[in-house]
Structure formats: structure tokens, C-alpha cells
């Protein structure tokens, strides 16, 4: 068990540790948050000027893991403790982790006649990984149960952190249809990723318990590792949520585009958008690439279990094994491409106070196309307060229920939403949670704004 494997295991779980995709905001006509998903939604904003205030969003998905099953009774005082053995029992051969996180700083939208212009800044973190159940088993059980077998333990995935400056334009063709587009400047801050096609095969010999590791893996990092030629001196410095203005002007930059269309048919509102089209970041500065290759054999009984037993055995084992893993290194530039997302949704006012909506989101994750569906119901409790429930389903995960709130007292807008209500209330059910908080200010009433978006329209 080398520092290489500890680093790779951390990479596999890193998206789950990030501190935004949301299935409610794209439907909320008139809110500043909806414009992040569709630039044509600028047409629905109620004021001539809208200021987007700071907000935060996070969407986490852990496939096959359920919070409640990770905890067992300790047998004393009725306490429940985390069980690594339970984690090993829950994982399949392949397990996915995804997290989409953003810090929204400031934005502004201006409406003049049929034109709307917007600009904003935010920090985004996109993380996706797939880890092997065998890797979890090795950490939890050691390698004694796998004598005479070969395990594939290589994870794959990436976490990329970047700042985004967006400049959008929306044009209302008529009172019904508006078109929008947005150009985005992307400033990369840090990233960790594995190159496609990597492999790590670990064999425990049946006669002398020798461990044989076949390596064919490339680990790419920017602003995440300090490597000075020896693995036992690698320092992990990755801070995906770091927000530094100076990094807007580094050499790690790229561009992307969003396109959208929105239609206001009175009681019915429809929208379609595609985000992160052609989005990519070229990494040229602070690049560290580690290439692990070859086949190495070393002896020892249940080495992996020994490594986890205490820090002394870990240090001794690393001192003896670190020379075995001597990666090739380079600082060659490379490029990260962001996966586009497609949104199709609509809202319908059933009554003057009750609104129903539906949303379909399609995206590419780890090379596969996946879909998510949400159905919402929202009630206008007062002229300025709307509350609702949303039923969400993502491919490979259980259907879950969330809730949202949208308040518009005076010029102020406040939006709060959770895609997984019960995750916030306790530790039961699936390891999935989504939460979004945001606010805005509106100035100057628009007589031509959709009725559903104007304060006091209910």
C-alpha cells in the first residue's frame, strides 16, 4: 500500500468532500438564479435592473451508499458509530461519486426594450469519479482475504475548480418568445484528474504472499500537489473552494457558451437551454503530471492491513516501499473539457396561487449520458411568499422529495431549495443532497414582465 494508492483513494472520494446543479432553480421564472441555467430567462425578470447577490449551491450524489447503513450500534449508551465494514458491504464493483458546487458572488442584468444584458461572476467546482469496490475492500479488510487473486483497483475521474465570468444577451422577438446567449470566460484555479484508460492491478501471491502491482496510470494535477521527486515528500495542497481574484488572470484559461430560448404563453411558460457548450480550460501553469508504469513485486503478509493499523507501521512501510514507485514526471500543458448540460422545462399556473412544473436535465458523466427529472408544485401563500415541493429522480438513484421557497418582499428576492429534504433532516436514506441559497434585488418595474414574475401578482 503506497502513497500512490492513498492519493488515488482520496481522488475517488474527493468530490464527496467538497464543501450546482439544482432541479428547482431552472423552473423558477423571475428569479435571478434561473438565469444561470438559461440566458433567455432574463426576459422573465420583473425589474428593469436586477442585481444578483451572493449565493451558494451544492449537489452531491453517492451511488450505492445510504447514510443510515453506514452507522451501527456501538453497544454502549445507544450510540451509533461509523462502520467501515458497512461501507465495504454497500459498494458494488463500480461506484460513482458526483458533486457540483458553486459560490455565486455578484451579477447584474439590465433590460431596455426587447434587449436584456447580463454579467456575473462565480466560482464553480465540478467533480466526478468512479471507484472500485475492491479498493474499498482493501482499505477495510486488508489483502488477506484476496490471497491468490488479482484485483483491479484503479479509480477514474476528475475534480476541476475554476472561476467563471459570464456576459449574456437576451432578445425578445415578440411578447411570447425570447432568445438568449452567453459567452463565458473560464479561469482555472486547480484540478486533479486521471487520464483515460488507467489501470492498477494488485495480485497477492498464494505461496509467499508476495504483492505484485501492475501499473499503467497517469495522474494530472494543477495547483494540487507539491512534488519534489520523491513520493514520500508529496504534499497535497488542493483547495477546490479557493476564491482568489488574482487567479482570474493566470495562464490556465478557457471559454464556454450557453444558449437558450424561453416562451411566455400566459399561464404556461416553457424554456430550453444548453450550457457549457464547447467549454474547455487549457492548463499551462503549475502542471504536475505523474506517470506510473511497470510491474513491481514486494513481499509481506497482509501489508495493507498493517498500513492502516497505526502511524508507525505506515511510516515504516512507506520508507521501504516508496522507492518501488518512481513515476515519470512532466509539466506538459493539457486541456480539460467540461461536459454540456441540456435543460427542458415548463411551468403552468393551475390557479391564481398554485403552479405545477416539470424539468428534464440531460448531461454526460464519466463518458455516459444520464438524465434527471423533476416535478414541482408551488403555492403562493401570500403576494410575496411562495413555497413548494419537488419530486426528483436521477438515473441510478432513488426518487426523493425536496422543498423550495421563493420570497419577494419589496425589491428583495430570496431563494432557498433542497433536492433532498430528508437528507437535511436526518441520516437516513440515500447519500444524495442538493441545496441552493441565493438572493437578488430588483429596481424599476416592468409593465411587460410576465405576470407570474411581478411582485404582488398573486
Q: Nearest-angstrom radius of gyration?
A: 25 Å
- Fraction of residues in helix: 10-25%
| CATH-level-4 superfamily name | monomeric porin ompg
Question: What is the average of the pLDDT values?
Answer: 79
**Largest sheet strand order:** 1-4-5-7-8-13-14-18-19-20-21-22-23-24
Give a short account of the largest sheet: 14 strands, antiparallel, barrel
Q: Give me the count of strands.
A: 24
Class of secondary structure makeup: mainly beta
Q: What is the total number of structural domains?
A: 1
Low-confidence region ranges: 1-21, 301-305, 307-323, 423-432, 454-458
Strand content: over 45%
- CATH C-level name: Mainly Beta
Can you give keywords for this protein?
458 residues; mainly beta; Porin; 14-stranded antiparallel β-barrel; two-stranded antiparallel ribbon; 6 helices; globular; disordered N terminus
Task: Please render the helix and strand layout as text.
Blueprint: H1 3-13, E1 47-66, E2 71-73, E3 80-82, H2 84-90, E4 94-112, E5 115-132, H3 133-141, E6 150-152, E7 156-172, E8 177-194, E9 199-204, E10 211-222, E11 225-226, E12 235-236, E13 253-265, E14 268-283, E15 287-298, H4 303-309, H5 311-321, E16 328-330, E17 334-337, E18 341-349, E19 354-365, E20 368-380, E21 385-394, E22 400-407, E23 412-418, H6 421-425, E24 430-445
Antiparallel strand pairs: 1-4, 1-24, 2-3, 4-5, 5-7, 6-9, 7-8, 8-10, 8-13, 9-10, 10-15, 11-12, 13-14, 14-17, 14-18, 15-16, 18-19, 19-20, 20-21, 21-22, 22-23, 23-24
Amino acid at each position: 500500500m503506497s502513497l500512490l494508492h492513498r492519493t488515488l483513494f482520496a481522488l475517488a472520494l474527493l468530490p464527496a468532500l467538497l464543501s450546482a446543479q439544482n432541479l428547482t432553480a431552472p423552473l423558477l421564472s423571475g428569479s435571478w438564479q434561473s438565469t444561470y441555467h438559461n440566458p433567455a430567462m432574463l426576459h422573465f425578470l420583473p425589474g428593469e435592473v436586477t442585481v444578483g447577490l451572493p449565493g451558494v449551491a451544492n449537489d452531491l450524489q453517492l451511488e450505492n451508499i445510504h447514510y443510515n447503513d453506514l452507522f451501527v450500534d456501538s453497544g454502549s449508551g445507544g450510540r451509533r458509530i461509523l462502520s467501515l465494514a458497512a461501507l465495504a458491504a454497500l459498494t458494488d464493483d463500480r461506484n460513482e461519486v458526483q458533486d457540483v458546487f458553486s459560490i455565486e458572488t455578484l451579477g447584474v442584468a439590465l433590460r431596455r426594450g426587447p434587449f436584456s444584458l447580463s454579467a456575473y461572476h462565480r466560482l464553480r467546482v465540478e467533480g466526478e469519479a468512479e471507484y472500485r469496490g475492491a479498493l474499498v475492500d482493501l482499505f477495510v479488510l486488508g489483502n488477506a482475504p484476496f490471497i491468490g487473486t488479482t484485483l483491479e483497483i484503479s479509480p477514474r475521474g476528475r475534480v476541476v475548480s475554476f472561476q467563471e465570468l459570464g456576459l449574456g444577451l437576451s432578445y425578445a422577438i415578440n411578447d411570447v418568445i425570447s432568445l438568449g446567449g452567453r459567452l463565458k470566460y473560464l479561469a482555472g484555479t486547480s484540478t486533479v484528474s486521471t487520464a483515460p484508460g488507467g489501470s492498477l492491478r494488485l495480485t497477492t501471491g498464494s505461496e509467499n504472499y508476495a504483492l505484485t502491482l501492475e501499473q499503467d496510470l497517469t495522474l494530472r494535477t494543477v495547483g494540487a500537489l507539491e512534488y519534489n521527486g520523491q513520493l514520500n515528500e508529496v504534499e497535497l495542497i488542493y483547495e477546490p473552494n479557493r476564491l482568489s481574484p488574482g487567479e482570474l488572470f493566470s495562464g490556465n484559461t478557457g471559454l464556454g457558451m450557453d444558449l437558450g430560448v424561453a416562451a411566455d404563453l400566459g399561464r404556461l411558460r416553457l424554456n430550453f437551454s444548453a450550457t457549457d457548450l464547447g467549454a474547455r480550460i487549457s492548463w499551462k501553469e503549475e502542471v504536475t503530471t505523474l506517470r506510473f508504469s511497470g510491474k513491481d513485486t514486494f513481499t509481506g503478509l497482509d501489508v495493507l492491513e498493517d498500513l492502516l493499523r497505526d502511524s508507525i507501521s505506515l511510516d515504516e512501510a512507506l520508507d521501504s516501499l516508496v522507492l518501488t514507485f518512481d513515476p515519470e514526471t512532466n509539466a506538459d500543458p493539457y486541456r480539460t473539457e467540461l461536459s454540456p448540460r441540456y435543460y427542458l422545462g415548463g411551468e403552468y399556473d393551475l390557479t391564481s396561487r398554485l403552479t405545477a412544473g416539470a424539468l428534464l436535465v440531460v448531461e454526460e458523466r464519466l463518458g455516459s449520458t444520464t438524465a434527471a427529472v423533476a416535478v414541482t408544485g408551488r403555492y403562493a401563500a401570500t403576494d410575496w411568499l411562495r413555497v413548494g415541493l419537488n419530486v426528483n429522480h436521477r438515473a441510478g438513484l432513488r426518487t426523493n422529495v425536496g422543498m423550495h421557497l421563493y420570497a419577494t418582499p419589496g425589491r428583495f428576492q430570496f431563494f432557498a431549495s433542497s433536492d433532498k429534504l430528508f437528507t437535511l433532516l436526518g441520516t437516513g436514506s440515500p447519500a444524495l443532497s442538493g441545496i441552493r441559497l441565493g438572493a437578488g434585488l430588483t429596481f424599476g418595474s416592468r409593465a411587460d414582465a410576465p405576470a407570474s414574475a411581478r411582485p404582488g401578482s398573486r
